[in-house]
Specification:
Shape of chain B: globular
Low-confidence stretches of chain B: none
Number of strands of chain B: 11
Distance between the termini of chain B: 15 Å
Number of helices of chain B: 14
Mean pLDDT of chain A: 91
Distance between the termini of chain A: 52 Å
Strand content of chain A: under 5%
Strand order of the largest sheet of chain B: 1-3-2-4-6-5-10-11-9-7-8
Radius of gyration of chain B: 20 Å
Order of helices and strands of chain A: HH
Number of helices of chain A: 2
Largest sheet of chain B: 11 strands, mixed
Structural class of chain B: alpha/beta
Oligomer: heterodimer
Largest interface: A-B, 30 and 36 residues
Number of strands of chain A: 0
Order of helices and strands of chain B: HHEHEHEHEHEEHEHEHHHHEHEEH
Largest sheet of chain A: none
Helix content of chain B: 25-40%
């Protein structure tokens, strides 16, 4: 859990650096809550062992206008 | 004769028998959309001029014996994320775009016109299709969508007006979109039937992009049969959308002539509200009359987290301009003005990890579904939340929705049907989740359900 909390702080610092000037304290609280949920999701996702051969399910098709 | 709550088949018979004309039908829908639709916050724009022009054309063609098929002369509404020309605004439910007009029609709108359908309204929706993280119903510049079943209940989102307009009998069908829950949710809360097609079945050209790999367009209507008729008209390849698959689709209204094979994921209704769980338990009894129900277990994987990461990553990119510029400050829901900033924190490798897991899940679930016609479960874990209150949402991580997460991430078709009511009179729903490209199978199951139940024929107080 400490790792998740640390990640939340790091991500929060990133968002505040980028957008802090346009957000008040109440809004920053919403950002932090959102990041806490995001960090939990990321921890769950990273805990899954995925076969090395599993490619992203996102087909790219080479483009050629006349084909 | 009232046109309200008549199915596409019934209206088609009325039109061809001369019991009603396309113009009269369109005018009745326009009148009810203006009066009743206004009370429900269901309508963004009445498309009266275009509707009457299309209806007059249908009238001429039908009189001359040129029949374009089941949708000829049938009015419908389109979720306001579908591009429309003719000076009709396309607002995406968002105040910053309330006057924005586009100069082309979305492929779905064009195909419905070719099928002879009559566009009577652009229907209300949650701003940016809910992609900014709203937490309560008041998240559209047209106000919170209101359920036809209770004036203090939400119609659901993000296809709010598509659900409530069909549910209140204002149009026989509507087009909605689903990234995660935006067709099945409003269909449930408004007591109508909703079909989420397979990803790639329907062209997304001209539809607001929220999440390129999750967005699907589909119909909401009174019956599963009507959903099939609409899908037949809008499905198919489209050069303007490379993800629209060149797989032909024809609606097949025949019954399979055998019992259905249903799967039930163990514990799928455990977290649902009591009324939903009770209705679902009763539904299982009826499903066992039309087939078998086998309980199964799925691998323990973070399905919802995977789908959320995909959704939030792509939404952050799709709306990068609005987020970076600060234009989201003009949105209606206070949380929608803030939450998107947090999505900047998602690393690309985490997004790719979600996409890799998605491929594994898509293969696994196809293996499961190869033994069944459909997985059944509640279409939502609750009935329509009350207006003014924060609601729990799987998209924000506040409520479980394994079937929604898997079904949307794997791009699988699902049909949601009414299956009961709460003590307060709010509808609850049942879903049939099928194998990719098997819309006709889940529609057949939903038809069999609706042949044995009357939940879809009950009418709300607002009617």
């Amino acid at each position: 859990m400490a790792a998740v909390a640390d990640e939340v702080e790091l991500l929060f610092a990133l968002v505040r650096h980028r957008y802090g000037a346009r957000l008040d304290e109440a809004q920053l609280k919403i950002v932090r809550e959102t990041l806490e949920g995001l960090a939990r999701d990321l921890a769950a996702l990273r805990a899954v062992e995925i076969p090395s051969g599993a490619e992203p399910a996102q087909p790219f098709v080479a483009f050629r206008a006349d084909s | 004769m009232s046109a309200a709550f008549r199915t596409i088949r019934e209206l088609g018979a009325d039109l061809r028998a001369g019991r009603v004309s396309p113009v009269a039908l369109a005018e009745r829908c326009l009148d009810r959309l203006e009066t009743v639709g206004g009370k429900l916050n269901a309508v963004v724009t009445l498309t009266r001029e275009r509707a009457l022009e299309q209806a007059r054309r249908a009238e001429r063609e039908l009189a001359a014996g040129r029949d374009r098929g089941p949708l000829h002369g049938i009015p419908y509404g389109a979720k306001d994320l579908l591009a429309t020309s003719d000076g009709i605004p396309t607002t995406w439910g968002a105040a910053p775009f309330r006057d924005r007009c586009l100069d082309y029609d979305a492929t779905v709108v064009r195909r419905l016109e070719e099928a002879g359908a009559v566009l009577v309204a652009k229907l209300a929706m949650v701003e940016f299709a809910g992609g900014m993280g709203y937490r309560q119903p008041n998240a559209s510049f047209t106000g919170p969508g209101i359920s036809p079943w209770a004036s203090d209940a939400w119609s659901g989102g993000s296809s709010s007006g598509s659900g409530s307009a069909v549910g209140a009998g204002l149009v026989p069908f509507a087009i909605g979109s689903e990234t995660w829950g935006s067709i099945l949710g409003p269909a449930t809360y408004c007591g109508v039937t909703g079909l989420r097609p397979t990803y790639g079945r329907v062209s997304r050209h001209g539809a607001m992009p929220l999440c390129w790999t999750l967005d699907k367009l589909g119909p909401l209507a009174l019956t599963a049969e009507d959903c099939g008729l609409v899908l037949d008209a809008i499905a198919g390849a489209d050069p303007a959308d490379p993800t629209a698959a060149p797989r032909p689709y024809r609606y097949d209204a025949r019954d399979p002539g055998r019992g259905f094979r249903f799967a039930l994921v163990g514990g799928t209704a455990d977290a649902a509200e009591p009324a939903v769980g009770e209705a679902f338990t009763r539904a299982l009894g009826i499903l066992r009359e039309i087939g078998s129900v086998e309980e199964i277990a799925l691998p323990a994987l973070p399905y919802e987290a995977m789908t959320r990461i995909i959704l939030w990553s792509e939404a952050a990119s799709a709306f990068e301009g609005e987020i970076e510029s600060g234009a989201i400050a003009g949105l209606t829901a206070p949380e929608d003005r803030v939450t998107p900033y947090a999505r900047d924190a998602i690393l690309s490798k985490d997004y790719l990890r979600a996409l890799r897991l998605r491929g594994v899940v898509a293969r696994d679930i196809d293996g499961v579904l190869s033994r069944f016609d459909a997985i059944v479960g509640p279409s939502r874990g609750n009935a329509g939340p009350r207006l003014g209150a924060e609601f729990r949402s799987p998209i924000r991580g506040g409520a479980p929705d394994v079937l929604g997460a898997i079904g949307n991430a794997a791009g699988l078709p699902a049909v949601g049907v009414p299956c009961g009511f709460t003590a307060e009179g709010l509808p609850v729903g049942l879903q049939f989740l099928g194998r990719a490209w098997d819309e006709n199978v889940v529609l057949a199951a939903a038809r069999a359900w609706q042949a044995r139940t009357d939940f879809h024929r009950r009418r709300p107080p607002v009617a």
